[in-house]
């Protein structure tokens, strides 16, 4: 005798012949939604299938097939925290677990495409509705069905900021989006790749690209009306304005005590803007004019790479942040922390308990800005708007210069605005910029730029402005730093800091090769606090992005992207050659390019050098 659950599923299959039940055992059913020949029919069939699914069900979509629809994820009847409903690619086994996907693998993914009209963009490809919970998407491509339409909403929307989500009880929760590819289209605007306005959401091994606009803000990931607890790991995130922005719009949730965007892990991601979007770069390619906006700028808006306006309890670790320039109304700061009561409806906006460690920030107009509170009418009313920042073991290089616009060049800009930020630790970093390592700006009412600023064990150039203005600070520590080219008379506590005349005098392992760790023979070895070396501990950084150790005999990055030869990055001349039949093929790797091996015949032939054994 069938259970009521099994009877219901049998009736479901009989009513909808476009579904094929692949497997049914216990309380799990696997469905396949096949290509009907019409993308819009496919999309309708997918929505119907999702509506009828329940805890533990798996919906398999054919790789390469288009599903044109604005899918809504309903609130299902099973309890929160149950086994999720899974929507996945039929070729998921070819997308390895834990490995970031790339556009080269789009043929392995079904395509869920949002629909709409010109100048409207339509709803999102996926929208998690109020109270929805426990879904996961694996190996799916998301974009717009009509390439010539702008997408004014998020391509994926986990929750919303609007009238359908005004209580914390309505927030969608428990979502996993893994090994998916989200992108806009050249010449047309895309507002956001994925918006996070939920609770307990993981975005991993993802690839987001072609998110850009000539007339408005746009982001790869954003959120302003969710509870948080987000895990964002091992993704490629590309957007012209801000690659990530949390805050920036007053939340629609009115539940007392609600604080949006609380608790996140952002780790192992590659944030980038193509230099072909940079109007100051020789690589610049002007965007295709958007026919929907004939009067708009012919440049994509650019602001920052990573920006927080309303968030707390973040760990930002082991990421690459690269390519940012002066644009729109910004100076090209890569990293910005600025608590902002954006439209005046969120007086408790805050940024606190931020840990920023083991990152590489490079090729930007300016490095990092910390603002205590926006000094305009959108200032938070709380006095605790910005506090508890740990900026440790990061490399900031190639900051400022004409390639990123005439403005900027700052290293650390710390400003009061309407409130004084406090408890800021900047420790064991390396900074090379063109203008000034620090810029302390007092508040509108004369408030201190910062309170309890600890600046220790850093290595930086004096740049053009050779000073550390203590009069702007309310409590500080400045010690055990290496100020290359600096004058001891311009810095406090000069007896406990060091002033090598040039970079070569420091004793870096390979200054020209950008390896800023210290040689054993450096006179500054062990001069940091507790006998540590000033600057960065390279052991804590991702080795994929680090300079080559001189003791290595050979190192192949596999990032050429074409041809049959693989350069030896050590300079020792051990060139590799693609061999076998069939040869390994080039693809997009987790960060740059990579090679696909078939697991049997293809290989890389490397020369034998008896002298290096």
What tags apply to this protein structure?
single chain; 613 residues; mainly beta; 13-stranded parallel β-sheet; 2 helices; 4% helix; disordered N terminus
Short structural description:
With 613 residues, this protein is mostly beta strands. Helix content is 4%, strand content 37%.
Low-confidence stretches: 1-26
Number of strands: 46
Across the major sheet, the strand order is 1-2-3-6-9-12-15-18-21-24-27-30-33-36-38
Main beta sheet strand tally, sense and closure: 15 strands, mixed
Bulk shape: globular
Q: Hey, roughly how much beta strand do the residues contain?
A: 35-45%
Count of helices? 2
The helix-and-strand class reads mainly beta
Distance between the termini: 71 Å
Radius of gyration: 26 Å
If you average the pLDDT, what whole number results?
A: 86
Oligomer: single chain
State the helicity in percent bands.
under 10%
Helix and strand topology:
Elements (H helix, E strand, L loop, with lengths): L3 H12 L3 E7 L2 E6 L5 H14 L5 E4 L4 E3 L2 E3 L11 E5 L21 E4 L11 E3 L4 E6 L2 E4 L6 E8 L14 E6 L2 E3 L6 E7 L2 E6 L2 E5 L7 E5 L4 E6 L2 E4 L2 E5 L15 E6 L2 E3 L33 E3 L2 E7 L2 E5 L8 E5 L13 E7 L2 E5 L1 E8 L12 E7 L2 E5 L10 E8 L4 E6 L2 E4 L2 E6 L8 E7 L2 E3 L11 E7 L2 E3 L23 E3 L4 E4 L46 E2 L9 E4 L5 E4 L4 E4 L6 E3 L8
Parallel strand pairs: 2-3, 3-6, 4-7, 5-8, 6-9, 7-10, 8-11, 9-12, 10-13, 11-14, 12-15, 13-16, 14-17, 15-18, 16-19, 17-20, 18-21, 19-22, 20-23, 21-24, 22-25, 23-26, 24-27, 25-28, 26-29, 27-30, 28-31, 29-32, 30-33, 31-34, 32-35, 33-36, 34-37, 36-38, 37-39
Antiparallel strand pairs: 1-2, 40-41, 42-43, 43-46, 44-45
